[in-house]
Every structure is written in structure tokens, then in C-alpha cells.
TrEMBL record, chains A, B:
<keyword id="KW-0805">Transcription regulation</keyword>
<feature type="domain" description="Phosphoribosyltransferase">
    <location>
        <begin position="121"/>
        <end position="259"/>
    </location>
</feature>
<feature type="domain" description="Bacterial purine repressor N-terminal">
    <location>
        <begin position="5"/>
        <end position="74"/>
    </location>
</feature>
<dbReference type="InterPro" id="IPR036388">
    <property type="entry name" value="WH-like_DNA-bd_sf"/>
</dbReference>
<dbReference type="GO" id="GO:0045892">
    <property type="term" value="P:negative regulation of DNA-templated transcription"/>
</dbReference>
<dbReference type="Pfam" id="PF09182">
    <property type="entry name" value="PuR_N"/>
</dbReference>
<dbReference type="InterPro" id="IPR015265">
    <property type="entry name" value="PuR_N"/>
</dbReference>
<keyword id="KW-0804">Transcription</keyword>
<comment type="similarity">
    <text>Belongs to the purine/pyrimidine phosphoribosyltransferase family. PurR subfamily.</text>
</comment>
<dbReference type="Pfam" id="PF00156">
    <property type="entry name" value="Pribosyltran"/>
</dbReference>
<dbReference type="InterPro" id="IPR010078">
    <property type="entry name" value="PurR_Bsub"/>
</dbReference>
<dbReference type="GO" id="GO:0003677">
    <property type="term" value="F:DNA binding"/>
</dbReference>
<dbReference type="InterPro" id="IPR050118">
    <property type="entry name" value="Pur/Pyrimidine_PRTase"/>
</dbReference>
<protein>
    <submittedName>
        <fullName>Purine operon repressor PurR</fullName>
    </submittedName>
</protein>
<dbReference type="InterPro" id="IPR029057">
    <property type="entry name" value="PRTase-like"/>
</dbReference>
<dbReference type="InterPro" id="IPR000836">
    <property type="entry name" value="PRTase_dom"/>
</dbReference>
<keyword id="KW-0238">DNA-binding</keyword>
Length: 277, 277
């Protein structure tokens, strides 16, 4: 194998690191791949780190020692996150989203890979530094969001079902009251999908009173799992809030079906931690 | 703004291109961003293209002229795809996947971001060059696969539902016979999720007789949409096959519940097009 030039190494390393966030890559792996000295690899990594961090798009973390190496930590700085969320807010405010009953149509936003990838990176930044073994969401609309976040945190996604499916094996089921429909709902999670004692991040698309998220937390208690955070894309105020300390990206404060107006703002991500409801 | 060094440009351009597959970026965008001559940008792009294509991980396509620019086309060469799918086959063959009734537990595989991202790239490679406006899948397990593929093709995902939800607005509903449960099922798609006449790629996790995919094709007919392809992760032979010309990544030929054995092989992706059932 031939020695790689620096220019080719930089392109290839950037690609390799971006494709596996949080994974520790030993410097020897790179040194062998490129037939280059570790000192050259270290210089390359310094250049990559400098570009990522000055662009606010992430950073490289170096771990010293025999078991050491380098890992890519994805990040999105608050300015960029605000730009993305301002755009989402603008699109959320489109009165054509209003459905009978005052519900909002969100499926178009939740189907756009560009937007999902950005939201995933925002959530990954918000919950960076926490020990996370898995991301939990509930079918159906939460799934793309959870998956987008999981790609940046490189942890598996577990999906809670509203109804039992034969393809899930044994399940644990809890009851919860859905805030939006005021009906009892069952939430089920396959027993084999989550190890006992896991640290779990909950991600969902929409939260009002938080009945569904409450149900997921109850379900996690059955697995003796620890909830390390709750992130929702759209929060809408409720008289009785069942959840504390969640992170919301946007807030829909009012849907006026008659006037066909939607009041939208940024979520509590931009507040200090203490101010979050 | 300062002129960027080549090394920093290469890292940043690689990141930019990878994050937006198929999007045409004008050379002037790069030239202005880096305060560099177009000739230097062209040299950078040649280096990136060379690394991507020699690693079999994609290529850059240059479009000449005033409206021209460069776009990143993600690809995974067949050797690499085979490695990934061999690993998936090995994991599929684990007898612990066998559920009562001979069903297979797949949710763990469909929750792993690393694996999903690779499968997404394999599907994106298999259907590259086709005009695709949207990817369609059915809830629940198809969603992560569809989304992973959509990230590499940069097209939106539309999700077919088994039951009508208030948050979908008006829907079109068709009936279909599910092969695995031999029962009639309803499939619904929100009217506003797909424009009439769209070119649609169908992606799903599992296919036996193809009843669900058949239902999706019927649903697409209601939208006057064109099916440009069907891709499934796991195919299992059925006496009566309702679908022609699909692409499968793996094949589960037998699940012996008594002996606790699963027979798994590569799908028809590796066959010549004419040989596909």
C-alpha cells in the first residue's frame, strides 16, 4: 500500500470521522491506513478539529494513552441552531397546517431529510455529555426524529408501540392518558429491545400535557431504566403539565381555527436550564 | 474574510458535500466562501473525487456551464455492500430471533444507526440514476430504513398508516391482504403528503407475498404516481408472489421453529437484473 498525500488523507479522515460520531478511532488505525507517521496524523487531526470547531459544526476529542485515539463529537452552535429553528417556526406558522379540531399537520416537516438531520444534530448537541445507551420514541412520527438524533449520538433507537405486534415478541405494556385525544392508550415495548438499567433519552415530535411521554417514562420504570432527558420538536402549553425538565425546540402557543392563525415561537432550548418548565 | 488554506478547504468542502448529497453547489459558492480562485476549487474537487471514487464511497459529478456546479453522489461498491450484508445475514441467522409463529425479531437491527446508514447507502446506490421525488414506506419498521435511504437520495419520506390519525388530515385509503397475517388491512396516506404524478421509491423492511407493497402500489395509483422501484431489506419466498422486479438485500428461505434454525442468504441485489423474480 502506498503512502497517502496529506490532501487525500484529510478528505478521507474527514469522511471517516463524520460517518462514525463518538466512536474512538486509535491513531494507529489511521497511521496504518495511510502509511504515515503518527505525528503527521496528529497534524491532520489538528487541522480537521480547527475547521470543525471554527465552523461550529463539531470538534475532535483526543484521548491520550495506549487505549487512546480520536473521536468526532457533532455539535451545532446556538446561532446556527437558531437559524434552523427560525426557519422551522416560519413553516410551522403556515395556516394551511391547521386540521379539523385544531391539530397541526407536521408530516411534511418530519419527512424532510435535510431538516431532520439538522434537528437530530440540535438534539445531539443539547444532550451531549450525558451517558446515553438508547433513544426511545413512540410510533409513528417520532421515529424519524429519534433516528436522526441517534445517528449523531450513535446509539440504538427503541420504538414504543400503541398496539401489540407479533413481530415484537414478549412486550411490557402500560396505560396512559393521551393529552390530545383524552383517551386511554396502551404503550408497549418489546422486552428484548432494552436492557435493564439502560440510560435512555426520550425524543418525540409533539408534546402537550405530556401523557405519552409520561407513559414512556412509566414504561422505562418497568425496565429499571433511567431517563436522562426528554426532547420534543414542538411543545404546546397545557393546563396541566405532566413532565418536568424537557427540552423543546419550538413552541406553538395558539392555534386559532377561526382566524386561521398559528402562534409559534422558539422552544425552551434557548432558555437557561433553571427557567425550563 | 480571509483566504482559506487548501488543507482547511478540503476538510470543509468534504463536510459540506457529504452533508447534502445530490445537491448542486455552484463553484462560485465555494470560491466566495474560501476567497479562492475557481481553478483552485476545481483542483480541490478533483482531489475529493479521487479519494471518494478510489474508496468506492461515492463520486463528485461536475455540471458545466453558467448554471453548473458540483454534486456529491453517494455510492457503495458491491464488495463493501456484500461485506455489510454478510454481517447482517450472520446476525439474521441467530436462532434467538425466532418468535412464536415463526416470525423473526428484526427491531434490534432496525434500531442501529450504523447499520441503517449502510443499508440506506446500499439502497441509494441500487436506485441511483432514477428520477425519485419521494420515498414511501409503511409504519412502523420501514420508517428508519426509508429515512436512511432518503438521507442519501435527499428526497422526502411519506409514511403510509394502518389506521387513520387525526393529525394526517384527509387521507386516501385502500384495502390489501397482508401476507403474513392473511387478514385484510387498510392502508392510508395523507392527501397532502404526496403530489399527483410523483415518482416514488418504495422501501420496506420485510416482504413475503408482497401484500403490503401491493397495497402501497394501489395507493400510489390513486395519486397517479409512478413506482420507480421497490427495495426490501429481508425477502422471504412465498407461494404466490404479488410483486415483480423488487430489489432485496437479504433472503430468509426457511425458519425452522422446531430445530430453531434460520436459513439466510444474500438477496437478489447481487443477481443480474433479468434474474430477479
Amino acid at each position: 500500500m502506498e503512502k497517502w498525500k496529506r490532501s487525500a488523507r484529510l478528505v478521507d479522515m474527514t469522511q471517516q470521522l463524520l460517518s462514525q460520531p463518538y466512536r474512538l478511532v486509535p491513531l494507529t488505525t489511521f497511521a496504518e491506513r495511510y502509511q504515515s507517521a503518527k505525528s503527521s496524523i496528529s497534524e491532520d487531526l489538528a487541522i480537521i478539529h480547527e475547521v470543525f470547531s471554527s465552523e461550529g459544526s463539531g470538534r475532535l476529542e483526543t484521548v491520550a494513552g495506549a487505549a487512546g485515539g480520536v473521536r468526532y463529537i457533532p455539535q451545532m452552535d446556538l446561532d446556527h441552531a437558531r437559524q434552523v429553528l427560525d426557519e422551522i417556526c416560519e413553516r410551522l406558522a403556515n395556516p394551511e397546517r391547521i386540521l379539523p379540531g385544531g391539530f397541526l399537520y407536521l408530516s411534511d416537516l418530519l419527512g424532510e431529510p435535510w431538516l431532520l438531520s439538522h434537528i437530530g444534530k440540535i438534539f445531539a448537541t443539547a444532550f451531549a455529555g450525558k451517558k446515553i445507551d438508547a433513544i426511545m420514541t413512540v410510533e409513528t412520527k417520532g421515529i424519524p426524529l429519534a433516528y436522526a438524533t441517534a445517528q449523531y449520538l450513535q446509539v440504538p433507537v427503541v420504538i414504543v408501540r400503541y398496539d401489540y405486534r407479533v413481530t415484537e415478541g414478549s412486550v411490557v405494556t402500560v396505560n396512559t392518558v393521551s393529552g390530545s385525544s383524552r383517551r386511554m392508550k396502551q404503550l408497549s415495548l418489546s422486552k428484548r429491545s432494552l436492557e435493564e438499567g439502560s440510560h435512555v433519552l426520550i425524543i418525540d415530535d409533539f408534546m402537550k400535557a405530556g401523557g405519552t411521554v409520561r407513559g414512556m417514562i412509566d414504561l422505562l420504570a418497568e425496565f429499571k431504566a433511567k431517563v436522562v432527558g426528554v426532547g420534543v420538536m414542538v411543545e404546546t402549553p397545557a393546563e396541566e403539565q405532566l413532565i418536568d425538565g424537557f427540552v423543546s425546540l419550538t413552541q406553538v402557543t395558539e392555534v386559532d381555527v377561526k382566524k386561521r392563525e398559528i402562534s409559534v415561537g422558539l422552544g425552551n432550548l434557548f432558555m437557561e436550564k433553571e427557567e425550563r418548565s
